[in-house]
């Protein structure tokens, strides 16, 4: 199966705190509006806009969640989370926690703790634990997509499936996860377009898998 085509358009905003990108996925060219920011107020605006857009369906809101950090090659050092990615439908936030003026704005803490929302991801328990350790951000209702797929598809082997495997099985989508990006400098002040695309796709695909498994869409 050929890899799903993914392109990115950089809006090149003249801002020190944020930038916008359009990430287009697949032949149908689903466009994900992606905000990259180190500003707590911009992250808060993204959250309030998301809740306003989905105000009719906030109970059970599905949110794709992922984090990235700079890898460490020392056993004694583990770098903190650099970016938190959240995706709902065609909107994605890449919040640069490591550079944020306020790493844990109240709106973000409240959003992550909302018991009505379901935060879906692969290996999400480890991400949630790291957010709590590094930034005292608590995620109330995290759902591991491997566990969910195993229950919905009645196949215990899916518990250990990665995002690539679940994307192929559930969405019929072939995504790439290049090591050079996975192992890259996620703590850089300015992320590359390749990093933004990677971060957005992981959160968006997590959202889409979660939506399909939970709602049967």
UniProtKB/TrEMBL annotation:
Entry keyword Hydrolase: yes
Keywords: Hydrolase, Nuclease
Domain 3'-5' exonuclease: 42-217
One GO CC term, this protein: cytoplasm
Statement: the UniProt record of this protein carries the keyword Cell wall biogenesis/degradation: no
InterPro entries on file: 3'-5'_exonuclease_dom (IPR002562), 3-5_Exonuclease_domain (IPR051132), RNaseH-like_sf (IPR012337), RNaseH_sf (IPR036397)
Gene Ontology biological-process annotations: nucleobase-containing compound metabolic process
GO molecular function terms attached to this record: 3'-5' exonuclease activity; nucleic acid binding
Record protein name field: DNA polymerase
Source organism of this protein record: Trema orientale
């Amino acid at each position: 199966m050929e890899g799903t085509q993914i392109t990115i358009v950089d809006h090149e905003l003249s801002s020190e705190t944020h930038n916008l990108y359009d990430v287009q996925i697949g032949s149908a060219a689903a466009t994900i509006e992606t905000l990259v920011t180190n500003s707590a107020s911009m992250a808060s605006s993204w959250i309030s806009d998301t809740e306003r857009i989905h105000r009719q369906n906030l109970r059970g809101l599905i949110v794709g969640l992922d984090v990235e950090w700079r890898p460490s090659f020392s056993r004694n050092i583990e770098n903190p989370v650099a970016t938190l990615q959240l995706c709902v439908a065609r909107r994605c936030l890449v919040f640069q926690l490591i550079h944020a003026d306020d790493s844990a704005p109240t709106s973000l803490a409240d959003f992550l703790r909302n018991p009505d929302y379901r935060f879906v991801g692969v290996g999400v328990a480890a991400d949630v634990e790291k957010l709590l350790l590094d930034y005292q951000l608590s995620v109330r209702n995290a759902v591991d997509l491997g566990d969910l797929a195993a229950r919905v598809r009645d196949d215990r082997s899916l518990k250990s499936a990665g995002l690539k495997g679940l994307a192929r099985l559930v969405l019929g989508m072939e995504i790439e996860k290049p090591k050079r990006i996975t192992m890259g400098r996620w703590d850089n002040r300015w992320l590359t377009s390749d990093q933004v695309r990677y971060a957005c796709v992981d959160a968006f695909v997590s959202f889409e898998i979660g939506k399909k498994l939970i709602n049967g869409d």
